[in-house]
Amino acid sequence: MAEENKNLRTPIVCVMGHVDHGKTTLLDQIRGTAIVKGEAGAITQHIGATEVPIDVIVEKCGDKRLADKFIVPGLLFIDTPGHHAFTTLRSRGGSLADLAIVVVDINEGFKPQTIESLNILKRFKTPFIVVTNKIDRILNWKSHPGESFLSTYKKQTPEVQGIFEQKFYDVIGHLYEQGFSADRFDRVTDFQKTLGVVPISGLTGEGIPDVLMVLLGLAQRFLESSLHYDVNGPGVGTVLEVKEEKGLGTTVDVILYDGSLQKGDTIVIGCLGEPIVTKVRALLKPRELSEIRYESKFQPIPKVTAAAGVKISAPDIGDALAGAPVIQATPETLDEVIEKVKSEIDDVQIQTDTDGVMIKADTIGSLEAMVHEFKKADVMIQKAEVGDITKRDIMEASTINDPMHSVILAFNVKVNPDAEELMEQKVAHNVKIFKNDVIYRILEEYQDFVKEQEE
Ligand code: GTP
Ligand code: MG
Predict the structure, then answer these.
(1) Is the pTM of this model over 0.90?
(2) Where is the Tr-type G domain (predicted)?
(3) Whole-angstrom Cα distance, residue 336 to residue 369?
């Protein structure tokens, strides 16, 4: 690593894509081959993330002379399941992810969550690559585990190459329809103009060296200025998940993207009411697999430095919100930090109209994404909130006379049992709920409903 750039933090890479297209397998492969190569110690498991240091990446890419060319210390891959990770990973109204990988099953092609992922990335202007996964499933494909794509491709028969080309250019065509000029990664000269697409198999590891290489290239080119940070500055992060853990009570899984955090530090965490002010009781990381003799899955650590995933155990954090900021404070900065956390949450309490529909979503980030998409489609919004659908929500919606507005649009949330009960009663006969786990599907369903009403 070049000396003068030691203070660049590890870029955060979010893996996105449709269910079952192979996000987790890709990350397992990146982790796994390194372990096979006897470098297990070099890969750091974080809470909700995996860190791959630059040396390991360069080693995998096969050319050691590259080591000095790269200025980032490695890559931190976020592997939260499902495609919601990205919107949860918000920070300062933008996205926490520096880079992203969109995984597409080459045999299945584009799916709703593929399109959703692309929409989100477009909106945040996040540099990303697409991988077309599962090339090993192409009829008669001969796998060459761990090889670069071009190397394995050249060893296929012309027939197999032909089938591959057809499927691959189908994906390129779909990307074009979504407004992206895209091409196979090795034919891209300017990654700022053209989206790089890497064919891979998460299962056999074919194409993985290329993925790492292209990601590093993107990090170098687009991120250098945004990766400077202060190792000794206050810890700043985002809540990925709020979780009950046996023996620990409520914990928050946090991705720290700036500064550092220590046991005993005072932290401020965003929630729907007044921000939570508490003290870090323990910082925890996953225990290495070789240490399973311990009862707890977690191991306490005294300090973490960005970028990192860490589990925080602290009193009174039950109301913490996924997607909310976590900022370290000192007695001198406490008031200022509370204000900062509050204003970040308030920004999300979204500009609403005097008349319109009600929106409910599971996290701050998904709520923001929803409001954005609906406003773009000129849907009026009276209320937008994080949380499950309550009896009160149904009551409120039932008092609205306009049938287009006595509507609750729900993303990834549940209907509480008492709310469900109320829905069956006469007072709520006018209330409609549209629920889905793909935002634009909710929008489509609602627009169809509006059309029906107008007819
Ligand atoms: P969710 O987290 O549920 O959204 O799925 P995911 O995107 O993480 O997919 P996952 O990695 O769990 O893979 C889904 C299935 O596809 C598993 O059975 C994998 O073994 C299989 N799979 C993933 N990648 C490949 C691949 O490259 N080749 C083949 N043949 N199978 C694959
Ligand atoms: Mg998964």
Answers:
(1) no
(2) 8-224
(3) 28
How, if at all, do strands 381-386 and 325-329 pair?
A: unpaired
Do the annotations mark residue 24 as ligand-binding? Answer: yes
Here the tokens at position 430 are 């006018």
Backbone angles phi, psi at 85, to 5 degrees: -50, -45
Tell whether residue 79 is among the known ligand binding residues. yes
**Would you state the pLDDT for residue 27?**
86
Report the pLDDT value the prediction gives residue 45, as an integer from 0 to 100.
Answer: 64
Q: What is the pLDDT of residue 93?
A: 59
User: Ligand 1 mean position to 219 CA, how many Å?
Assistant: 26
Q: Phi, psi (5° rounding) for residue 162?
A: -65, -45
The reply to whether ipTM tops 0.90 is: yes
| Cα 419 to middle of ligand 1, angstroms | 37
* 406, 431 contact by CB (below 8 A): yes
Task: Report whether 23 belongs to an annotated binding site.
Answer: yes
**Atom number of ligand 1 nearest to Cα 204:** 27
DSSP string spanning 8-73?
Answer: BPPPEEEEEESTTSSHHHHHHHHHHHHHHTT-GGGSEEETTEEEEEHHHHHHHHT-GGGGGG--S-
- Ligand nearest the Cα of residue 201 is 1
Instruction: Please check the confidence at residue 429 and state whether its pLDDT lies above 90.
Output: yes
If one compares 59 and 117, the residue with the highest pLDDT of the two is 117
Residue 203 in contact with ligand 1 by CB distance below 6 A: yes
Q: Is 135 annotated as a binding residue?
A: yes
Query: What's the confidence (pLDDT) of residue 331?
Result: 96
Q: How far, rounded to the nearest angstrom, does the alpha carbon of residue 322 sit from its chain's CA centroid?
A: 12
Identify the pLDDT of residue 128. Answer: 95
The alpha carbon of 138 and the centre of ligand 1 are apart by a number of angstroms equal to: 15
Contact 201 CB / ligand 1 (< 6 Å): yes
Q: Tell me if 207 CB under 6 Å of ligand 1.
A: no
Does residue 113 line the site of ligand 1, with CB under 6 A?
no
Chain mean position to CA 12: 10
